[in-house]
Amino acid sequence: MNLLAVAAGLVWLALYSVFTAIRRIRLENANHKRAILDELKTPDPHKRKFVGFFHPYCNAGGGGERVLWTAIAMLQRDEPEVISIVYSGDTDATKEQILSKVKARFDIDLSPQTLHFVFLNSRHLVEDSAWPRFTLLGQSLGSIYLAWEAMSKLIPDLFIDTMGYAFTFHVVRLLGQVPVGAYVHYPTISTDMLERVRSRKKWHTNSNAISSSGVLSKGKLLYYRLFMYYYANSLRQASFLMVNSSWTKNHVDSILQYTDPLLDALHLCTPLVFLRLLRPSQTPKSARIVCPPCDTREMAKFPLEGRERVILSVAQFRPEKDHAAQLHAFHSVLTSYPEYGNGNPGDSQVRLVLVGGSRNAEDAARVEGLRALAKELGIADHVEFVINASFPAMLNWLSRASIGLSTMVDEHFGINIVEFMAAGVIPVTHASGGPLNDIVVPFDGKPTGYHATSPETFAEAFHNVLTLPPEEDLALRERARTWAVQRFSEEEFEKGWNESGWRRWLPS
Ligand SMILES: *[C@@H]1O[C@H](CO)[C@@H](O)[C@H](O)[C@H]1NC(C)=O
Ligand SMILES: *[C@@H]1O[C@H](CO)[C@@H](O)[C@H](O)[C@H]1NC(C)=O
Ligand SMILES: *[C@@H]1O[C@H](CO)[C@@H](O)[C@H](O)[C@H]1NC(C)=O
């Protein structure tokens, strides 16, 4: 009985300190806002609204960062009264350094007047290395703490996560009482991961020892089930959700539908009951695809006519790119149509050119293996490897090639394929993933490229392209370019944001 009283007292004390802390943070927020407006020397401070972007790795210079900076540039253009806040863990860089890197890397001009960085000190808590075991759980708890730090430095008027830290949503909604939204590149956990543990299949996050032992597997299943429950609950806190591809949409949509009645019922008798009660008025039923913008300005200038009979692959020499399949496909076309092997290079002879980066010893060994395979297939004289090509050298190949080849299975996106199309190179890709569903899709009811699955079908697609009558060849290249440039343009990106309805969540 005494023990129970002590426990109740401790719980009460813990809740009391949390609520006191929350109250203090909320009270101080007006000062935080004022300090930022003073620092930016903002005219008309009372008109300003704060939109916070949670992007702890904002200085990384990858595809996710292009999305972030393009979105902020859009806000600066369309919503001049908004102050964009970036929650960043890049404490080793200054605002000026980050902005000049954005300019150099993406050629995006941002105005420093309506942009402010809130630097976070606990980013190490979301790093893989901080959590060698239970990585998902550890990182998620870490992100909750990081969001707490962020909110204690500034509560924005609208919070947008652009890096996939959905577990921050509860903190922001509870502590900040402001709407949240997200642009999701990749689901933290997917329903098929759960299915795989359930059916005990081996997979990379599911090591052999675990899939062969029943008890461990049950434990892991429970872990994933709990995790999925909280992840789905977190995502449902969002007022609007955007995703970068149809692949991600399928996953996010199925997670939004995920329910677990048993866990729901259990929550009614714990202090976490608020998880059930705290729901925004309108949870989106599904996520909206907003394609990330690609910079295709350079390639879209290449001439469409006078292409060499070059089949071009642009891909790092990583195993999943499946370069061996490219050699087999090329071997198949030379076997079925030996005339493609005759003549001079640069003239009637067809060549396969593999442009790609080799990052380390494994990649280098893979390249050696591919060279050996080309010899073994008797096609080595027609195959050229271009390792670690510079960007201008790659552009040069894009301006000359006829066909762009990609053999990766279930690729989520494939920016190289967008680049092929913008450059006027006809894509021939594996019939799966982003290349099938998002990129090489009909435009105006007409095809923009080819899909294949086996060496023979790839070979047929090559043959089709190589024998197109000139006017059809030109029309296809033109169509592929128009589609890619338009579909992955900044304007289309902006339209997607507009249609996501995010503006409704700004305070009026
Ligand atoms: C979406 O994001 C994931 C994870 O960063 C990435 O692998 C994929 O290529 C992206 N898709 C698009 C369309 O950019
Ligand atoms: C390619 O670049 C990597 C590092 O970026 C380097 O280690 C490798 O040796 C280079 N390979 C060649 C063939 O130039
Ligand atoms: C998006 O909305 C803003 C504000 O209403 C408008 O100025 C802009 O032109 C829109 N952009 C597109 C591409 O529709």
Number of distinct beta strands: 13
Structural class: alpha/beta
Widest sheet: strand ordering: 3-2-1-4-5-6-7
As a percent range, the share of strand residues is 5-15%
Rounded mean pLDDT is 91
The shape, in one word, is globular
Give me some keywords for this one.
2 domains, 13 strands, 19 helices, Rossmann fold, binds 2-acetamido-2-deoxy-beta-D-glucopyranose, alpha/beta
Fold topology:
Layout: H1 2-40, E1 49-54, H2 63-78, E2 82-88, H3 95-106, E3 115-119, H4 135-153, E4 158-161, H5 168-176, E5 180-184, H6 191-198, H7 208-212, H8 214-235, E6 240-243, H9 246-256, H10 261-267, H11 274-277, E7 288-289, E8 310-314, H12 323-336, E9 351-356, H13 361-376, E10 383-387, H14 391-400, E11 403-406, H15 415-423, E12 426-430, H16 433-439, E13 450-452, H17 455-466, H18 470-487, H19 490-500
Parallel strand pairs: 1-2, 1-4, 2-3, 4-5, 5-6, 6-7, 8-9, 8-11, 9-10, 11-12, 12-13
The protein binds 2-acetamido-2-deoxy-beta-D-glucopyranose (NAG) (3 copies).
One 2-acetamido-2-deoxy-beta-D-glucopyranose binds at residues 63-64, 185-186, 244-245, 248, 291-292, 412-413, 434.
